[in-house]
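[audit] Reproducing an earlier prediction to check determinism. Same input, same settings, fresh worker. If the tokens differ from the archived copy the diff job will pick it up downstream; this log only records the rerun itself.
[audit] input (705 residues):
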Amino acid sequence: MFLSIHHISLPIEDPLLKFLIELIIILCIPLLLNKIKVPHLLGLIIAGALIGPNGFGVLSRDSSIVVTGTTGLLYIMFLAGLEIDMGDFKKNKWKSITFSIYTFAAPFILGFLGGYYILNFSLLTSVLFASLFSSHTLVVYPMISSMGISKNLAVNVTVGGTMITDVLSLLVLAVVVGMSQGEVGTAFWLQLSISMILFTLIVLLVFPIIARWFFKNVSDKISQYIFVIVMIYLAALLAELAGIEAIIGAFFAGLALNRLIPHTSSLMNRVEFVGNAIFIPFFLISVGMLIDFNAFIQSWETLGVATIMLIASICGKYVAAYLTKKTFKLTNDEGQLIFGLSSASAAATLASVMVGYNIIIGETATGEPLRLLNEHVLNGSILLILVSCTVSSFVSMASAQRIAQADNDNTVSGNNEETENILLALNHKDTVEKMVNLGMLVKTKKNKQLFGINIINEDANESSVKNAEKILGDAVNTASAADVKLNAITRHDTDVVRGINNAIKEHNITDLIIGLEENKGFSASFTYNLYNGYLHNKNINLLVYHGIQPIGTIKKYIVLIPSEAEKDAGFFHSMLKIWNIGRNSGATISFYGNDRTMQILTRIAKKADIEGEFNVVKSWSEAENKAYNLKEDEGLIILMADRGMHSYFPQMREVPELLNKNLSNNNYLLIFPFSKTLENTTEKRAVSNVDDFAEIGNIIGRIFK
């Protein structure tokens, strides 16, 4: 073994040793830099430069590095598209478009002036040179997302603008390359337009259809993850065939799967975990391997070009962020975050430089090739990547921490918020995964735990110790896959309802979720236990769930709200659960109720930035007609009348029978709000001020934060 080590030559070729070295770097760099509060992104790039061919030559930038690095780059863009809040994006699309215009134009103008008037590049080269600075790569996005502010307006605007400005800069690349080769004409523009339209339609329309079918029919977790990777690479390949860069394809793949991978699901956790642990660090190391510090020592011209590139890129992005902040009256921290996120140049910049460098437009008198972009621009782009990623890391992390801290301060300022404890009544093996997934959707973001209970009554042959261990073990594993702790509770009792009610008291449960068996629905025994047992507990929010298909594949929910439901003590608590389902699954929420209720919900939507449709109906029967004609991939949510109001809503007693008759093949959820008025709670104050819409708006703005 020692003789083998003695004869090792550089660069190292042994695949095991190469991979070990890279993993050690990925392990140690974040641990070391976190101690001194330096973004580990920067450390991975520098480590790549030191061990790369232009450093100590420990590793070569071979095909294995390129493949994993490319996957990491695609992963970054995919995650940006996957995690963007589509509801917020729709509301803020004009802000994103405005920002994209700023962030494309400002660096482009500075870059063109520097290239044409200072560096004396040709007009065509100057245009391509300027486009290098218009694009940006969301290198720090994974770190920002991990801080819990991915839904912040500044982040949303920047991510949306990234898609537009990267497409524009890469279109400039395609046009300049075509002009340099004399291929621009009517046929060129027609082909480019048609190919881009086809690409967009296939990815955004066909991909969701394929993905929804796959997730509905394939439950194997490994297969689901591999399917996601296939979609990323397939979209990237289609983008290249359409004449644009692969990173745009990966971003569009994220948009296509956005509403099909719930943000709180185990699949989302797997996607983020593998990307952040392996692929994205490999990409950063591969970028560092391109850095050649000797080029700047040996050539003053390279330093001059690099200086102009840095000024054009960094200053241009700062101007764009400043204009965006002023235009939309954002805070200083949000303006800094926009600048930090958009200042990193890596993916599109590197792609454009490499394409321009490889295009030879002539020869010198000595036979040397004349390139569209010379080696000084190539070396300058590497320095630009290093410096811009450094600036992006420090600025983004500093501003993001301040924003996250401000959000936490605003949240904890409400001392009257109730503790949320969700209990899942797990009685059937086939409903475990569906129940856990629903629990993860309805819980608030700060809540990192669930409770699961199985009542053992061996005399009545309802369950056994072995069966309880199996069911609760599956529930614990399902929740842990999404980084959620599930506290398993096993109870021996002669009565299931009594056993669950005792657990509710012991663990201060606020929400109880009960699952219906797929083929039984509301059986006579379940209906009896519901109205004569569970609903007698007035302190909890009760959810009865019937899940036929994976909850992430539901396109739309119809929500029925009876008149005067807003006067129930648990109304706003229940509305939060409904909103969380829509926000975390990406499904559209369509509310139906009387005019007064819809006015209140509209006020909530404006304050809490809720995406939904609000429809006024004149009678409960009209609302039922909307519900019992659900289409495929649609679900139903009914906010049931308060336990003490059944004399006013006798038709509520008929709901279970109607659901069994009309919606046995659909997902539906019944929510029974708690009816006990709790002192000093948000719900109590909201009910007391139900006629004051402004007060409701202020209260709900904090509840739905």
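[audit] rerun output stored. Observation attached for the diff report: The longest strand covers residues 449-456.
[audit] end
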